[in-house]
Design goal:
The chain is α+β, with helices and mostly antiparallel strands and 279 residues long. It contains 10 helices and 5 strands. The protein is globular and about 55 Å long.
Length: 279
Amino acid sequence: MRTIKKSIAILTVLALPTALGADPFTGYSVAESQGYHSQWNQDNWDEGGPLMRYVMLNMSEFWNHSLIDRGGPVRELPVAPRADVADFVTTTRQGRRTLDAYVNDSTVDGAIIIYEGRIVYESYPRMLPEDKHNYMSISKGLIATLIAILEDLGQVDVSRSVDTYIPELRGTDWADTSILDILDMASGIDCLETDQGSYSNVDHCYYQFEASLGWIRPTATTYDDAYAYVASLPRLRPPGEAFEYTSQNTFVLGWLIETLSGQTVVDFLSRDCLLYTSP
């Protein structure tokens, strides 16, 4: 049986497409908060700039939320800063920059690098300690971790087809697609997030996927049930043939977690994942 490989390094970078100065971030005034609320709508909130940053740092003010509570004891990670990490030089749009210079003078809100259980780099130039930043697609790694835990517990075989475990996908184009191919973004389902216009063209299947989730403005053809919409998607190519990034794969993995655990993804992450990984 093929299994999910474990990595030894974790890099989390929270960034937004907008230019910023180097002034220390001290939070938002009442007037600024009210101004962003008056600007916000379902069409413009993720187009970049200061509005998107405010929304990303204050998601609970705009969207319904489920809170992920910490289960088990806090695991204090040792801090072992490495100069070779902070001083690593790469090419950016602003020319050759060290990692530390880029993080602290660019669009990055916060960054942390963990290697072999130690924090080797950490900086939050545009966040306060109590801020809860939207993870966006960083959360794909959390979903994959939950699948790995279920595999380790013997509750799932990632080499088997996803419809083995999710009855609602039997007879759909997801049938006979292995869980590992879905984890590898190689499901072959025909609804690519990387297509031009996928976020703005109301006729594109990916736009309709996000609309079914409530992220963007729905149309007359938008499904009320995101599960039913994802199950209806057609196939583009055989599974495992090509890497094609799209978030419906992660949605199906979340559906799988809920089916196997009998819990919501939020509850499983909070109660089982964090306890499973606690010292």
